[in-house]
From TrEMBL:
A GO molecular-function annotation: rRNA binding
UniProt-listed SUPFAM superfamilies: Ribosomal protein L4
Native organism: Butyrivibrio proteoclasticus (strain ATCC 51982 / DSM 14932 / B316)
Name the record gives this protein: Large ribosomal subunit protein uL4
One Gene Ontology CC term in the entry: ribosome
Disordered: region residues: 44-79
Organismal lineage: Bacteria, Bacillati, Bacillota, Clostridia, Lachnospirales
């Protein structure tokens, strides 16, 4: 069972916390993590690109010149792909890029991503994040106190608007809730910042 330090908003250690091995101490499955990231990126693709094939381009119903005797190569339509204004060969069409992963695979991928952060000492647990007002400067100070100034993902147990809006203008920090936590955001973050309440909620949901 991993034992990590708990810090306050000033960056001072205020205690220790044991992380459940069932979530933060599993065997890392890189393949499932890779698949989960691919799935999220694929789900985000619109898939609305479209170009016309030679059968959809208007015009070109008549053979441009006779088959033989002109000195030109034979042509059947001025809308063939080699002509200017012609159709596109193997033109892209609207499609759905998404694919499915079952629930056990998704859960295993999330646990693997969390475990990897623990193993590489890229996780910070803070006792609480509470702001009396929306203050980006104050949030930046807290991240600096926690040594999480580069690509930090802050995981909250509850939707505290003062915290969320304080972090919104920081390019190097993102916030998410435990119920919207996903593998891509974890992998993409350099430092994972969890509140004690968030840790408890994650262990309650995924154990």
């Amino acid at each position: 069972m991993a034992n990590v330090s708990v810090y306050n908003m000033e960056g001072k250690e205020v205690g220790k916390i044991d992380l459940s091995d069932a979530i933060f101490g599993v065997e890392v499955n890189e393949h499932l993590v890779h698949m989960a990231v691919l799935q999220q990126l694929a789900d985000n693709r619109q898939g609305t690109q479209k170009a016309k094939t030679r059968s959809e381009v208007s015009g070109g119903g008549r053979k441009p010149w006779r088959q033989k005797g002109t000195g030109h190569a034979r042509q059947g339509s001025i809308r063939a792909p080699q002509w200017k204004g012609g159709g596109v060969v193997f033109a892209p069409v609207p499609r759905d890029y998404s694919f499915k992963m079952n629930k056990k695979e998704k859960r295993a991928a999330l646990k693997s991503a969390l475990t990897d952060k623990v193993q590489n000492n890229n996780i910070v647990v803070v006792d609480e994040l509470k702001f009396d007002e929306i203050k980006t400067k104050r949030f930046a100070e807290v991240m600096n106190n926690l040594n999480a100034t580069r690509k930090a993902l802050v995981v909250l147990a509850d939707n505290d608007q003062n915290v969320v809006l304080s972090a919104r203008n920081l390019a190097e920090a993102n916030t998410t809730l435990t119920n919207t936590l996903n593998v891509y955001d974890i992998v993409n973050a350099r430092t994972l910042v969890l509140t004690k309440d968030a840790v408890a909620k994650i262990e309650e949901v995924y154990c």
